[in-house]
Automatic annotation (TrEMBL):
This is 3-dehydroquinate synthase, chloroplastic. It comes from the Eukaryota. One of its GO terms (molecular function) is 3-dehydroquinate synthase activity. Belongs to the sugar phosphate cyclases superfamily. Dehydroquinate synthase family. The keyword Plastid does not apply. It comes from Chrysophaeum taylorii.
């Protein structure tokens, strides 16, 4: 499978809101992007039932729960809320069970709606709870991190982690709308913001050369969190993700390309203990490893590998693996990757020009070994 995509238009000054549709027929929905959307509350009109359960965490709750509840009550909803502990280690069966207990204790019925107010951890967990509670209730994604706005709130991959692997227990289940209120990013710490940039860079590398070039030219504005640069990055990321998801909702083929760097990255997250590396940091390391392996295979030239690594570093992301990890650590965890088919590892690797990649089991495994050794015996393959 080979994919490459359209280049993106130049960013314009933007303050207004816009909508990106996710075209999935009866499961389709809008992504609203703009400042002030949470409070404005227009999104509440998507919710048909009267009772709503808002789930957030103990960091986001004090910041935005009251605005969310006020918007819902203003729209005539009866609102109950649950505040979960913060952190990747709580994207767990235990907190899923707590969320389902809350839904039952609050007497939420099949017409009720769950609202995920938080980053990717809350979005993934609450989405999974919505998928299984009474065999499925509506849910709304209100992403509050860059990671969640550019990636996790869109596309319906919901899950909790297992100690042996990321997102091992989950479902494909789409929200009824996504509310990306970019003003909520004002309170997000820089390390978390930069983590989200890792997935933004991914879209450029796998399918949107023009977007990658725009990022190279604007990475300073992005890390400085210039509002129009951030709004453009969110919009263009959502357009890329929505297009891939519309083509392949359940990852039969092209959707796997959204996993660039994730086979290595998930191994880093699992081996280091959830939360040690942020998801985007682990994906950045994994992307550098995928670029290294692609170059060793002769599928990309050194200049393209250099550009990928330079952009990741300019976004203040790590590109070397944890010192304590061995090639065997990577291989053990990668053997459980969800893309493994009949025991065969399949990887997303860069191939050809910028913006093109392949999802393939056909690679020289000696090159994989070389990459694993390069990243575990030196601080970085490409200094
Ligand atoms: N479903 C998907 O397609 C998909 C895509 C990408 C990532 N993910 C998953 O998403 C998770 C990572 O998401 P994340 O990076 O958002 O992490 P996160 O949800 O843990 O949020 C990061 C941190 O920022 C805090 N926070 C959130 N919003 C804030 C705000 N506005 N102001 C201040 N602090 C805020 C959180 O409490 C947390 O401490 C991982 O579990 C990853 O696997 C899923
Ligand atoms: O939406 C997708 O498809 C992705 O792969 C997006 C990834 O960024 C995300 O981290 C996703 O949760 C990974 O899914 P998994 O199937 O590898 O667990
Ligand atoms: Zn990811």
């Amino acid at each position: 499978l080979v994919v490459s995509g359209p280049s993106s238009a130049r960013a314009e000054k933007r303050t207004a809101s816009l909508t990106v549709p996710v075209e999935l027929g009866e499961r389709g929905y809008p992504i609203y992007i703009g400042p002030g959307l949470l409070e404005a509350g227009a999104w509440c009109s998507h919710i048909s039932g009267r009772r709503v359960g808002v789930v957030t965490n103990e960091v986001v709750g004090p910041l935005y729960l009251s605005a969310c509840v006020a918007a819902l009550e203003g729209a005539g909803k009866e609102v109950v809320s649950l505040v979960l502990p913060d952190g990747e280690e709580h994207k767990s069966m235990k907190q899923l069970e707590r969320t389902l207990d809350f839904a039952l204790e609050s007497k939420l019925d099949r017409a009720s709606c769950l609202v995920a107010l938080g980053g990717g951890v809350i979005g993934d967990l609450v989405g999974f709870a919505a998928a299984v509670y009474q065999r499925g209730v509506d849910f709304v994604q209100i992403p509050t991190t860059l990671m969640a706005m550019v990636d996790s709130s869109v596309g319906g991959k919901t899950a909790v982690n297992h100690p042996r692997g990321k997102n091992m227990i989950g479902a494909f289940y789409q929200p009824i709308c996504v509310v990306a209120d970019v003003s909520l990013l004002d309170t997000l710490p820089d390390r978390e913001f930069n983590s989200g940039l890792s997935e933004v860079i991914k879209y450029g590398l796998i399918r949107d050369a023009g977007f990658f070039e725009w990022q190279e030219a604007n990475v300073g504005a992005l890390v400085a969190r210039d509002p129009s640069a951030v709004a453009h990055a969110v919009e263009q990321s959502c357009r890329n993700k929505a297009a891939v998801v519309a083509e392949d909702e359940r990852e039969a083929g092209v959707r796997a390309t959204l996993n660039l760097g994730h086979t290595f990255g998930h191994a880093v997250e699992t081996c280091s203990g959830y939360g040690t590396y942020l998801h985007g940091e682990a994906v950045a390391i994994g992307t550098a490893m995928a670029a290294d392996m692609s170059r060793r295979l002769g599928w990309i030239d050194e200049a393209l590998e250099r550009r990928a690594v330079d952009l990741l570093r300019a976004a203040r992301l790590p590109t070397s693996a944890p010192r304590k990890m061995t090639p065997a650590d990577f291989l053990d965890i990668m053997a459980h990757d969800k893309k493994v088919k009949d025991g065969q590892l399949r990887l997303i690797l860069l191939k050809g020009e910028l913006g093109s990649c392949v999802f393939t089991p056909d690679f020289d495994t000696a090159k994989l070994q070389e990459t694993l050794h390069a990243f575990t015996t030196t601080t970085a393959a490409l200094e």
